[in-house]
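Replying to the earlier thread about multi-chain prediction with a worked example.

Input:
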Amino acid sequence: SQQGEEDPQALSIQEGENATMNCSYKTSINNLQWYRQNSGRGLVHLILIRSNEREKHSGRLRVTLDTSKKSSSLLITASRAADTASYFCATDYYNNAGKSTFGDGTTLTVKP
Amino acid sequence: NAGVTQTPKFQVLKTGQSMTLQCAQDMNHEYMSWYRQDPGMGLRLIHYSVGAGITDQGEVPNGYNVSRSTTEDFPLRLLSAAPSQTSVYFCASRVGAISNQPQHFGDGTRLSIL
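Result:
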């Protein structure tokens, strides 16, 4: 399977702490995307990082990509209760007609 | 802009019934796709389309049909519903197949097959 794997499966932290979740994949990619899913809702795009990029920021979010290790991480700094959600990585593999492969996600709980 | 609109939001079917899940996008995106999400899992690709008139199978296509007669619409048909098709279905669109752009998702259709 080309599916990415995420860890941890679940993460529980206090408000104000940082949250880090990781994604690993198996073959060459064009890009890797991170999405958030609130309970009962669709996925919302957070950050897309291309294969030739190593780090991207968006507000309190920081994404890194290490193509030599075939892995990515999403860091949420100074977390808030509103960050409670599931987070998914998706990979666009090279020569895969734009199809994205999703991991099973990390469920983040931020306690107030 | 409405983005990606899915209807209905909820549906209960009996085994053997057929139905169509509707998906429409108003962003003039070439690429559209259907996923299913089972409890505690990520999304699995059912079918996708790189443009009007062109569709192809994803990871789990059995029991589903799609068509793409216009850029805007990408309906998903369940031919003969089975309990194993109980899931949440998401439609998504993106600018193009090789665009290095993210996907935009609808809010999903929650489908129960009895």
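The interface with chain A takes residues 4, 31, 33, 35, 40-45, 48, 50, 56, 58, 90, 92, 94, 96-108 of chain B (CB under 8 Å).

Feel free to reuse this layout for your own posts.
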